[in-house]
Amino acid sequence: MYINCLCGGYKYRVYNFKRDGVDFEVIECSRCGLGRTWPIPLLKEDKQVFYNEQDDFNERLEQAALWRKFLNRALKIIKKYKKEGDLLEVGCNVGLFIDLANRNGYNAYGIDLSKRATDFGKERFNLNGRLSQGSLIDRKGDSKRYDVIAYIHVMEHIERIEDEFNLIKSALAPDGILYIETPNFNSCWRKALKSSWYGFSPKQHIWQFSRKPLEDILKKNGFKIIFSATRHSMHHEISFSFKGFIKAVLHLASFIFNCGDNLTVVAKKAN
Asked: Distance (Å, rounded) from C-alpha 153 to C-alpha 168?
């Protein structure tokens, strides 16, 4: 039996998928459009163990050039609203974004559930004192306030997102910004690629956001939206091939109809 949506809705549109050998559903609230993976992956007590055992940072390092290009675009958006200041990335992995932000005028720090990833990043990118293991709740008693808090493909992993937004408000400076990037469930890429779409991770991704539901949740939890858009993700670089042609068509559709598969939102505290 499905549980009620965050908006209180209890009726869903149900999508059936299979990914990585796992049959799963995405249930999309008929009232607000927020989606979630069902059954819910990685309940709270499993997260610390799971993420600390992952070695996906090796894959990230193998694709470091592509990740840096992707993260540089994120930094350009942040720069429009905060040109400098104290920055915290939640879910920083090995710290590629922290390294980039520090090189571009920010005093940047990162936290991640994986000690293996943060330890590796400290050594590889000389980020000792910049990276630490943990989550935002571990900094609840910290009096430091940040000018930028970033969640780059992390918010979809967090089970209790309304609690997370309360923690973010406490950690943000009065005029600070919250930067979120997440897969866009309502994208033309998801509709075209079906189960092979990168945004499906039935063992990790709890939420399937699209633009309006994410904006509505932020507003409900005391934020105002100052920027919202979609763009293509790092997974769709165009090449000179038939597959590249299809990607070019989807890129054009994404641009015309604002349905790229990467959703970006910048928000500030409402008061």
From this structure: 16
177 forms bridges with which residues in the sheet?
Answer: 148, 268
Question: Rounded to whole angstroms, how far apart are CA atoms 110 and 126?
Answer: 13
Cβ proximity of 133 and 114 under 8 Å = yes
What does the alpha-carbon distance between residue 182 and residue 70 come to, in Å, rounded to a whole number? 13
Tens of pLDDT, residue by residue over 152-186, are 999 999 999 999 999 999 999 999 999 999 999 99
Higher pLDDT, 148 or 189: 148
- The more confident residue out of 235 and 209 is 209
Spatial separation of the C-alpha atoms in residues 60 and 48, rounded to whole Å: 20
- Angle between helix 161-171 and helix 211-220 axes, rounded to 10 deg: 60
All structural domains of the chain, each given as residue ranges with its CATH number in brackets, are: 45-195+210-269 (3.40.50.150)
pLDDT of residue 180: 98
Answer whether 106's CB lies under 8 Å from 127's CB.
no
Long-range contacts, 70-77 (Cβ 8 Å, 24+): 70/233, 70/234, 71/96, 71/97, 71/100, 71/152, 72/100, 73/231, 74/150, 74/152, 74/179, 74/181, 74/264, 75/100, 75/101, 75/104, 77/179, 77/227, 77/264, 77/266
CA 99 vs. chain centroid, Å, equals: 18
Collapse the DSSP code of 126 into the 3-class scheme (helix H, G, I; strand E, B; otherwise coil) and give the result. Answer: coil
